Amino acid sequence: MLRSYLLSSSATLLLLLLSSCGKEGPTLVSGLVVDKDTDQPVPNAEVQVHAFSGGGSSGGGGYGPALGGPYRTDADGKFAFTFEADRGKTYRLDAYGPLGHFSVDQGVEVENGRTNRNLRIPVQAPGWVRVRIIDEPPTIGEGMLFVGCIGPKDYNFRLPLQREESFVIATGANIPNASLCWTVRQDVGRTVTEYQQKLTIPSLDTVTVTIRF
Predict the structure, then answer these.
(1) In 10 A of CB 193, how many CB atoms?
(2) How many CB atoms lie within 10 A of CB 68?
(3) What is the DSSP letter of 41?
């Protein structure tokens, strides 16, 4: 019976040692979420932790889903929390603001099992582009209109339009060399005409672009 007890105790101790070997220990992070362009704090933002599966941001793999949280900043944009880190993994902090701010430059990496203070997570302020498409007489013959170059997707319309089209594209504000592009492809003669309009989108503001034919 004593031998069985000793074997059981040894097995339990071994399991505890093995489980502890994979942990780096508590990782404390604290700092500030700031607007990338104005450097002003972003209140009530949400900070999330992501682990890199390849062991480093320069190797293979990628950052996985958020671990716990999100952890909210206070009215001054400050955050402080602790998470349990696994040994050999790389962790990154990303942040998102209630008005649509989002992380830029791949977030901020932290050191496992250590106290990481005075971190600054830059976020990009959102901006919007309102697009109006007006097909005025004389209308273009049958063809296609393609609108894109900004935002997460392109927009396609069959010509001639049956009515005025209007939609809003969500994007980042103050993006250098931002442009709205559109292409008109006419079926008759297979002619293609390309257009481009440069945009300056202020933070939390909307710019309107009207496309007329």
Answers:
(1) 11
(2) 10
(3) B
DSSP 5: H
* CB contact at 8 A, 92 and 66: no
Q: Are 87 and 73 in contact (CB under 8 A)?
A: no
Report d(CA 80, CA 114) in Å as an integer: 13
Tally Cβ neighbours within 10 Å of residue 134: 13
Nearest 5°: CA angle at 48, between 47 and 51? 145
Q: DSSP letter at 55? A: S
Residue keyed to tokens 């931002």: 178
- For residues 92 and 49, give the distance between their C-alpha atoms in angstroms, rounded to a whole number: 6
* pLDDT by residue, tens only, the chain of 213 residues: 544 443 444 444 444 444 444 666 899 999 999 999 999 999 999 999 998 865 444 444 567 788 888 999 999 999 999 999 888 888 999 999 999 999 987 789 999 889 999 999 999 999 999 999 998 876 778 999 999 999 889 999 999 998 999 999 999 999 999 999 999 999 987 899 999 999 999 999 999 999 997
Q: How far apart are CA 56 and CA 138, in angstroms?
A: 59
What residues contact residue 93 under an 8 Å CB cut-off, 6+ apart?
29, 47, 48, 49, 50, 107, 108, 109, 110, 119, 121
Q: Which of 71, 89, 91, 90 is nearest to 81 (CA)?
A: 71
Residue 43 tokens read as 């209140």
Query: What is the pTM assigned to this prediction?
Result: 0.72
